[in-house]
Amino acid sequence: MATNICLIGFPVILCALLVIFQVIINKALNGPNHQCGCSCVPTNDTSVCKDMCGIEYSTPSQAIFCAIPKPPHWPAVLQVPSFPYRAVDEHIDEFPGLPDISCRWWGTCPTSFLYTGANQSIGDGITFIQLINKSQTNV
After folding, report:
1. Do 38 and 65 fall into the same domain?
2. Entry pTM
3. What range does the domain containing 127 cover?
4. How does residue 76 score in pLDDT terms, banded at 50, 70 and 90?
5. Are 129 and 121 in contact, with CB atoms under 8 Å apart?
6. What is the tens place of the pLDDT at every residue in 91-106?
7. What's the domain count of the chain?
8. 65 and 91 share one domain
9. Residue 76 backbone dihedrals phi, psi, to 5 degrees
10. Alpha-helical runs (H) found in 29-119
11. Integer angstrom CA distances of residue 137 from 17, 115, 131
């Protein structure tokens, strides 16, 4: 009988603790410092104002709780390997088209990588843009 009480009681107690913790956390984060800032902004009629909320009406501590209506999109990212890890032809003519291993000493090895996609022109454009951005950050 004690085992059955423990089997039934443990999930009930666990759920009760979770509910209690949730209520405590909600009450702690319910203050004005944990909400997006709002302000009464006058409309065309000076006697009436409209309650507006947003990052422009928030303090720095409130700003992290504001929704971003149109977040910026991240561009496609390519990881370009460092010079010691770039593809080279270590054995004579085993892989035609790859540079000689001596380019690793001078840091002049070009990058070689594969990319896939249905539209090759978009892939070529993204690859070219990413390589230009990477080369400008290395200078």
Report:
1. yes
2. 0.37
3. 83-138
4. low
5. no
6. 766 667 788 788 888 7
7. 2
8. no
9. -65, 140
10. 60-63, 103-106
11. 52, 22, 10
